[in-house]
Amino acid sequence: MSQSYDRGTVESFGRWREFSAGMWAWILHKFTGWILVGYLFTHIAVLSTSTQGAEMYTATLQGLEALLIVRFLEIGLLAVAVFHILNGIRLLFVDLGLGLTAQDKSFYASLVLTAAITVASIPTFLGGAL
Amino acid sequence: MADHYSSFERGGKRWFLQRITAVFLIGVLAFHFVLLHFVNHAAEIEFAGTQARMENVGYFSLMWTFLVTATFHGVNGVYNALVNQGLDGTQKKVVAAVLTIASLLLILQGTRVALAMSGVL
Q: Which of 1.20.1300.10, 1.20.120.80, 3.40.50.2300, 3.10.20.90 is the CATH number of A18-126?
């Protein structure tokens, strides 16, 4: 069901102060999606070292993991992936017409859960790097 | 009641395939992250361990299907986002062609990588 007033389009980003929870969810889902598809191409590029031999593959992966910045980028990637998954589940429910009245609350829940999982994963990602 | 925000025309084929791949990817992406960061730590990954996993036909099939569905879901998402922003006419056709070629190349290269990891190549 649509609102009875014109809120404008979510594409008009200059109006961000007026955005509702659903609009922020739409933007964050797009943003995290762009990062994930970009990472997919990068991921295959890095893993392509496996075609150059076992030593090249192992040295590349362990060399990257030795960089602290890579560990932090992995934490960021986890946050992006977790949010995209959780908000994706929310979108599937919205598409099925389930929980529409709580769609803003489920967006906030996605954010809180993403933050909790990300923070809890920090020791694992930084293990041995600090 | 909130408005529905989506870049997809509901009920369309692209919309449907995006949802079907999403359901699959929710599970497999989570599994991939857990297995390669929490069960096996990324910093300790060596080719031998990767090969041991990829020699398992079930794991290989899952990862290859992951590659194909993630490529479709990601590139289809980008395409629909661009169409949603007003991409039309010749530009739309060119973007669709470029994204299709990029997807096929990624799947081809990903397949080469998977075969190299499993020791076939």
A: 1.20.1300.10
